[in-house]
Sequence to fold (204 residues):
Amino acid sequence: MTEQHPSWNELLQKYCREPEVRQVIFVQQTEGSMARVQLYVKTEEYPDFWTKLLTCEGYIGRNGLGKTTEGDMKTPMGDFGVFTAVGMKDDPGTKADYVKLDEHIFCAEGEFYNLLLDDRVIPREVIDENGGDHMNDMSPQFNYGMFLDYNKERILGKGSYIFLHCDGPNPFTAGCVAVSEENMKFILQNVDNNVRVCIYPLIE
Fold:
């Protein structure tokens, strides 16, 4: 692992010292667009230690890691928080904030780059002027998910709308991270707003 990429043990130790962080998700690129996804939590019984709740297969961008620009088909590498949990299906019981992806929720460009928009708050004509797309026609990938805070500064062209979401028909994504719907639902049921999602290559 290069100096700029912390080891998984270093990340666990770092967040073990931060009491507000009670869950860490590791997305470990194994080869190409393949990844290993692990969920660690602090339990009430052992609040000062990590318990691994899940290890599963996942997918990342078709072109691997290292996102720098919109449309490069790469997943960003780094240590991220989440803006919110989301889903076309009803809240599965997460402790994180949850946005139901119904007919009112959109993604857009322009001044609303990398934001989720609600047409009950922002007029639909304004959303349409900024290339708004519905978020409720992307099943099964967005049956459940988490909106990662990659590019939270909303720099145009750097990349937008990076999620950990359910997998689809392909063994890769356009830049997000995907796991099975069963595992995505399980992850949501065991995280809160302070979960960290750490995405790096796996070096044994």
